[in-house]
Every structure is written in C-alpha cells, then in structure tokens.
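Need tokens for this chain, all 305 residues.
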Amino acid sequence: MPYRFATESAEAEDVMVEILDAPSGELLGAMRLYGVAEAEVDIASYLRPSLSLMPVETTRSIELVSSPSAITVVVRANGVDSEPRTFFRSKFDPTAVGPLSNHAITQELMLGETLRLTIYAQNEISVTANIKGVKSATLRVVGATNGKPMELVIPTSNLADAESIMVSLRLDGKISVQYNYVVVPNLGGVRRLVWYNNLGGVESYLFDHYKRLGYSVKRTDVHLCMESAKSVEGYLRYRLCSGYESQTDMERVVRLLLSPMVFAEVGGRCRRVEVDSRDIAFDGRGMMHTIMLDVSEKWEEGGAL
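Here are the structure tokens for all 305 residues:
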C-alpha cells in the first residue's frame, strides 16, 4: 500500500506523515521522515491492526455491517491530505456495484448455520428477508455503506420453524438481486467450509461427507523463567467429500484453495482451518464433479508441559 509524495521544496525537510481513518478522523498511525524532498511510504503495517479476515458473527436476527476487512483512509503529509482511498481483502473496484459473493441463486442452508453474503454499493443497501414456515416473518435492514463493502449475516439458529428464506437486495435504489435458500434439518456427518473468492466476497459450501482421520500434536521447546518446557498444539484431521455437483459449482468450490483463509462453520460459528490438500484431480474426461479435501483444525488450545 505505497504512497508517494514530494514536498516541492528546494531543500530537503522533515515531514510528518499521518494515517487517518477517513470517516472518523481517528489517527491510525504516524511516522516522521527526516531530511527528504520526496519519498514513498508503505502504510500496510499501520492498517493491519484495524482489519480482520474473520467472518462476521451476530446474535441478532439479521445484521448488515461494514466488512471488517475494509477500511477507508486518508494519508496526511505535513498537513496536506490525500484523496480518501478504500482498502479491502481483495482488489477493489469502487464502480462495480453488486454482490461480491458468487452463491448460487437457490441453495440449501442447514438449520443452525448462518447465511452470509458480501455486498457492495456506493451509498446504500436495503435488505428484505422473507422467512417462510410454520411462523412466517419478514426481516428488514438498511445500511449506509460509506463506499465500503458490507457483510450480510442471518443466523438460522433462531428460525427453528423456517422452511425457506428469500433474500432481496436493493443496491443504491437501482440494482435488485434475489437469493432463495431452502432450510433443511441439521443432519450431522456434514461440514460447511467458508472462504473468500477473488473479489473478496464470502463463499461457502456444505460438504456431504465428513470423516475423521485422527489427531496429531506439535511440540515446541519454550523457556519459562529458569526451566525449559514444551508448548503443545493439538489438531484434528478429517476428510471432506462433496456430492456430485455441476461443473460450474465445483469450479467455484475448488477456488477455496486460493483463499487467504479458510474456516469451518460449526453451530453458526467459524473457526480457522488448514486445508492440507493441494491438488484436485480431474476425471478421465477432464471434468470435476466431486472434490475431496483433507483438513486440519485446532483440537485443543494446548499449553506448556
């Protein structure tokens, strides 16, 4: 995230560079450069503490919030401000209004899981969720984007009688998008992975088959005061296998291998996992209708022994 500036002075001088959150004016970081006429600074390290790749979680029925991976900043050099610039977890096009997630228009959502979409509009997003079931309901939320991508989160844990959810999006009062979800019982023996696509949109897929492979531990020597000890981390390894899906959906899912982080969703909560598989094979016709992955996740927090 480099910024280049010139003082336009005949002589080198000291320059105070400040990084500010554009909406609030909060100071995110500062540096003083000594004896420069022009320079280039990288502000990435100042932004990282304010950003997160963790998926949004909520206890509300519906939540529309600014993405924790998005931030708009101004860089000030000796009192002169740059134009506001938005950074996101992927290359960001501020003119491309629309959903950043590539979810299928109709898909299944297991009871207890969370519906997640990443959406971008320049000014405002309006969401209507029609819940159909024994007790039908309509959820609505409107959010000002301030030019940043937004995360829509709808947990199904409070929708015990839901049979389907129809989500309608209205972006900047012009673009309309609709998604349909069929809510199915929690079957067990399955696992949903959550990741980010090349646009930075949240994606997910429910793997039909989940098989535990075993436990493993990693021990690392550490020093506590005058004694040596071992830090222990435990991992659960398991294998996931998809159902037989369309070529288009499998091409979407396999791109999770390119995501900077992958998560397993259990009971509506996400925890980070490591995808140990690095290769996906095509069949004899050069097609891919199923995917098998080996995954590791933290078993216990571990400690010193």
